[in-house]
Amino acid sequence: MDGVHLHPAIVDLVARLKGPRKAVLVTDAIRGAGMPDGEYELGGQPVVVKDGAVRLADGTLAGSCLTMDRAVRNVMQYAGVGLGEAIEMATLTPARAIGVGARKGSLEPGKDADIVLLTPELEVARTIVMGETVYTA
Q1: Sheet with strand 115-118: strands edge to edge
Q2: Secondary structure of residue 53 in the 3-state scheme
Q3: Which of 97, 115, 117, 123 could covalently link to 128 via disulfide, CB atoms 3.0 to 4.6 Å apart?
Q4: Residue 11: how many CB atoms within 10 A of its CB?
């Protein structure tokens, strides 16, 4: 959903065909995600982040610098998906896809209470893991 790996029209097509219960948002993010353009490392290899794309020296795409909050905003923009569906594609659907939906992916009694609080602009404001705040913007 970074607008580099797939054209927004393809994102729209996949979201329409699969729907929020089968389409999963993925970042494939490197350590440089959320950082300014520049040089970073991926698996011991130097990579360059420029204009939202991560590339090896030869120009090959090498992961992404997409953050999950950006992926949510992008799928809403590219595919006209509503907020609830976009959040489901970022949380419960991937949890179910990897077999941990019984304890992750939604806020329900008995599930892990890992929470990301978003601003009205859908940017990360706070992250809570195991009841402890681990990030505050």
Answers
A1: 115-118, 124-129, 132-136
A2: strand
A3: 115
A4: 23
Look at residue 126 and give its three-state secondary structure: strand
Query: Taking a C-beta distance cutoff of 8 angstroms, is the pair 45, 56 a contact?
Result: yes
Residue pLDDT, tens place only, 4-49: 999 999 999 999 999 999 999 999 899 889 899 999 999 999 999 9
This prediction's pTM: 0.90
114 is catalytic: no
The residue annotated as part of the active site, out of 12, 28, 112, 114, is 28
Which residues lie closer than 8 Å to 89 by C-beta, 6 or more apart?
15, 20, 23, 24, 25, 72, 75, 81
To the nearest 10°, the Cα dihedral for 105, 106, 111, 117? 90
Give residue 85's identity as a one-letter amino acid code.
E
**DSSP category for residue 4:** S
Start-to-end CA span in the chain (Å): 23
